[in-house]
Amino acid sequence: MSEGAPPSKRQCSVLLRRETEETSPRKNILEFVGSDTNLHDVVLLVQNRKFYVNKKQLAVHSKFFHRMFFGGFEETEKDEIEIKDLDASQFHNFLEAVYGVLYVDDSIVEGLIELADRLDCEHILKKCKDHLMEMKNGPSNKLLRMAIRYDMKPLKTKILSSIKTKRDLRDLIRPTTDGFDHETMNFLLEKSLGMEQGPLFFEDGFPGSSTNESARTVSRWLAMRDTD
């Protein structure tokens, strides 16, 4: 296509589909509205949204719910239970994953793995980890923080071993190093020193400094250097 020429119909179709996929919210597959009383025996209240679910179905998949429903707690006898500090949309995704109709994708994996970890749901946690290992386009900084948080050593190793240039290192420590462990920060500092000796002040923050101070030192050094 020559410069300035209008896109073809096929190109317009591809662009429209891509834009729609990126901007359209994900549609729910199941609605937990309680229209059939034979399919639920408890109501979970999350952010004022009611989810009509089956205790045994949740207990099979989640140790958290197994303890809640069958562990002798006061919730055992309740018909409606409020669960605080959860996002209703993310909880809906979690329920669809439990009911086997939701596949993990890039748009939901961060929220889903957080709930799977909190609600002690091992098989969904594994699905999320498997997906993260296969992600190719996710922000490396976010992926690394998730790898550290959920003890995903293979993913952590994969990300750190991909550092080849100063730009790779810069992208990895931005926008934040919150959640980076000392092992990771030490690796990044040694990696940066191995690329090329930095200014003298760089050494001041290396061996005995805190993680945050070390991160600031790396950031200052990288800011002084030309990009690749």
From TrEMBL:
Pfam families: BTB. It comes from the Eukaryota. SUPFAM superfamilies: POZ domain. Transmembrane segments: none annotated. CDD domains: BTB_POZ_ZBTB_KLHL-like. Residues 40-99 form the BTB domain. PANTHER family: BTB AND MATH DOMAIN-CONTAINING PROTEIN 34-RELATED, MEPRIN/TRAF-LIKE MATH FAMILY-C.ELEGANS. InterPro entries: BTB-MATH_domain_protein, BTB/POZ_dom, SKP1/BTB/POZ_sf. This is BTB domain-containing protein. It comes from Caenorhabditis remanei (Caenorhabditis vulgaris).
